[in-house]
Amino acid sequence: MDTPPPGNPPRRPLPLLTRAGARPVNQPLPSGAGHAPGGADLAELMQQVARGDKQSFSALYDALAPLVHGIVVRVVRDRAQSEEVAQEVMIDLWRQAARYRPDTGSVTTWAATIAHRRAVDRVRSAQAAADREHTQAAREHQTAFDEVAEQVETRLESEQVRRCLRGLTELQRQAVDLAYYRGLTYREVAEALRTPLPTIKTRMRDGLIRLRDCMGVTT
């Protein structure tokens, strides 16, 4: 069973990628990229890295980091996140060096595959987090609607609703109108009113409580 090299890889900050003389990260590796600086073969370096040779990993890092970062940034787009993912890929290369098999492809191909997979995983994770936030906002919106707005619509006359709405602050009234009469989510209300989301949630909660009390709605 393959075992990762002992210890941690030498830390190589990614600003190294843009130092003077470095190849721009959005360009492909030049011909002869299968060799590291000094003429060492990348496959040989990988074997040394698999044995825990940190000096060989430093040479491997210098050879592959621009390629890795270029792939990641094209997928992730965000440069700060791209640097994080690229560092994770280089750590993967250190830890998984013993798994590399020359007969399955070049070191650069192997590194590129890991980089692309990591980048796609980061994008999917970010999208999943955004979807969860949207779902939670919709759930909160629906809960508040069920507790107050639905009872208002079924039990009270429109004139009383208008009178109670006039008792709200301008921001509360606008937020309630956008959420319950136009169907916007909390986040969409915040964007429409150019107001921070936490402020919108607080104002709407307070506004709904005032409406409930004004109209004598019990929950």
Automatic annotation (TrEMBL):
Domain RNA polymerase sigma factor 70 region 4 type stretches: 159-211
InterPro entries recorded: RNA_pol_sigma-70-like (IPR039425), RNA_pol_sigma-70_dom (IPR014284), RNA_pol_sigma70_r2 (IPR007627), RNA_pol_sigma70_r4_t2 (IPR013249), RNA_pol_sigma_r2 (IPR013325), RNA_pol_sigma_r3/r4-like (IPR013324), WH-like_DNA-bd_sf (IPR036388)
Region (Disordered): 1-38
GO molecular function: DNA binding; sigma factor activity
Residue ranges with Low complexity bias: 14-24
Pfam family, one: Sigma70_r2
Residue span, RNA polymerase sigma-70 region domain: 60-127
Coiled coil location: none
Alphabetized UniProt keyword annotations: Sigma factor, Transcription, Transcription regulation
Residue ranges, compositional bias (Pro residues): 1-13
Signal peptide positions (record): none
GO terms classed as biological process: DNA-templated transcription initiation
Organism superkingdom: Bacteria
The family this protein is said to belong to: Belongs to the sigma-70 factor family. ECF subfamily.
Protein name: RNA polymerase subunit sigma
Annotated source species: Streptomyces globosus
